[in-house]
Design a protein that fits this description.
alpha/beta, Rossmann fold, Arc Repressor Mutant, subunit A, 3 domains
Amino acid sequence: MGEEVFLIDWILLNLTGRYRLIRELFSRGISTEDIISSLELGQEKLSLLRKKAGEEYKKAVDSGIELVPLSSDDYPYLLREISDPPALLYLLGEKVWLNGSFVSVVGTRKPSRYGINITKKIVSKLVENGIGIVSGFAYGIDTVAHMEALNGGGYTIGVLGTGVDIVYPGVNKGLKKEIIESRRGCFISEFPLGDKPEPWHFPRRNRIISGLTQITVVIEASLKSGAMITAGYALEQGREVFAVPGNADSENSQGTNQLIKEGAKLITSGEDILEEFNIIPKVSNIRPPELNPEEAIIWNILNEPRLEDDIISISGLDTGKFNVIVTRLELKGLIERLPGRMLKRRNG
């Protein structure tokens, strides 16, 4: 009962939308109860919010949606650093990915063939090196980035401008199912369950995309676009912005070219990102092309040493199949066992 009351309090705080003040009070060690009191909501409003929070909690439990409050150790540590982090995240999928190594990739909803190809090129190289992909699950560059992460045996986080139980856009229904069933990613949102797409949701969503990572990559964006809003948030948050240059005559290149003029790092490949910052793990063993999809899944999960049980849980493989694949990777000299049923990539 204590955990239920605790989470309902955080849902209530999230519903107020007063994230800056909540973060400030929380960072000073003030209790959830006292934070609620400090907001001076008034008895009538407080009662209404508490009732709605209780309903939200029940819907989440019934739907298998996890609730990750700002106070949780599972809350993404980079997102917690921004000035207005959501008081609570709704999560659908594998929570283990929330604090992995990620790069944000965003761009236009109407990409050119060039934009699609460069997105695949960049994402595939990041995924080969154990880097996950954060994006907004919108149609276009976002969709390509999420799909390429999965195709490479990597992992991905979709940040939604709706409740996590809503499929939007509808064309991505199959992709959402694949991310969940593969157990190689998750979806997060600050918006209550059942919230439909609203125009004002998406700019708010974009600050979370940039807030989750140290690096945001912009691929094809017009001057007035959601991707440019995300880049603006990244700069406000003290994060790095990289941009792919494009045709000067293309509307979808005006935003990225402008970012480069204003100091964004010009990149043309995933290697440009891997070489730029120490926060990105350097992996000497790039995933060999002979790995099959199941071997690639385990290889990418091992971007750091992990317990065998955790790898099995994340990969979704049964124990027998897992042991067969691990043996093959050992025989290829790609992974090694450590004490305590740990596995790691072999150096060299």
